[in-house]
Specification:
With about 270 residues, the protein is an alpha/beta fold. The chain has 2 domains: about 210 residues, Spore Coat Polysaccharide Biosynthesis Protein SpsA, Chain A (Alpha-Beta Complex); about 45 residues, no CATH class. It is about 35% helix and about 20% strand. The protein contains 8 helices and 9 strands. The radius of gyration is 18 Å and the shape is globular. The chain starts with 9 loop residues before the first strand and ends with a helix.
Length: about 270
């Protein structure tokens, strides 16, 4: 791969559900990228607000050429499953050699794709993650992740909007994941675990290139850490998924104190 991707087409998949207040910022940030060989696939998951209309009007007004997919047949799955399906459907319309994921309430720094492609040019690698800038109402905080995988094989990783993949590998990975078995488990965890432990390919860039909004109405707001039932259920699903992969690949499973506590609490939920 090194030397072959200098001007490769990059597809940015934007997934949206009721993010009317943020969608134009997200798509404008994509259009203003320093790296120009990109295409945008905007997937709306049957929003009940006016976010889809905003994007359609914006595209028409500015005579822009990007694909809009409207999921009119949405069923009542969990939010994580809906996003998983949105990405899989969007990939069918994506022509890029590389895929960059973006939640509609987040947005990219103008140098994001340029810097990520530089890494793909230099390394024989399947995934690159950049560092997030947590965007609160009145402040921003840069969070730093390392490439190190913890001893108990629980990867520490940036969120979905920080992830960029080689497309052909991503398609294969998504086809292997039984996502409906774990309805509360976010796609970034699936992918971080699979790429770091099974593919053994997990590179985190040192630059902060993604603005990750803390808006209070996202999926994670339903999973308040330690405080509610859903968080513990999701934590249990994460261990189940992690250990199923480790077991299938004849690797030691995670039996940490965290695992034991999570299993115990789930007995009473």
């Amino acid at each position: 791969m090194p030397g072959l991707s200098k001007n490769a087409l990059v597809t940015i998949i934007i997934t949206n559900f009721n993010k009317s207040g943020y969608v134009l910022k997200a798509i404008n940030a994509c259009l203003k990228q320093k790296y120009k060989n990109i295409e945008i696939v905007f997937f709306d998951d049957k929003s009940s607000d006016n976010s889809l209309k905003k994007i359609i009007d914006f595209k028409k007004k500015n005579n822009l050429n990007f694909r809009i997919i409207s999921n009119e047949g949405k069923k009542n799955f969990s939010s994580p499953i809906n996003q998983f399906l949105a990405i899989k459907k969007s990939l069918k319309f994506s022509r890029g050699r590389f895929i960059s994921l973006l939640d509609a309430d987040d947005y990219f720094h103008k140098d994001k794709i340029f810097e990520i492609i530089k890494v793909f040019n230099k390394k024989n690698i399947k995934i690159v993650l950049d560092q997030p800038i947590y965007k609160y109402k009145n402040k921003t905080i840069k969070k730093n992740y390392s490439n190190k995988i913890t001893k108990n094989k629980w990867p520490k990783f940036p969120p979905t909007s920080c992830m960029t993949f080689e497309k052909k590998t991503l398609v294969k990975v998504l086809d292997k994941i039984k996502f409906k078995k774990f309805p509360n488990l976010a796609i970034d965890f699936y992918l971080a675990v699979y790429y770091s432990i099974i593919i053994k390919d997990f590179y985190i860039h040192h630059l902060h290139l993604t603005y990750y909004r803390q808006v209070g109405d996202g999926t994670d707001s339903n999973y308040s850490k330690y405080k509610n039932k859903k968080w513990w259920i999701r934590r249990n699903e994460a261990f189940e998924f992690l250990n199923s992969l480790l077991s299938k690949n004849k690797m030691p499973t995670n039996k940490s104190l965290d695992y034991i506590l999570t299993k115990f609490i789930n007995i009473f939920l």
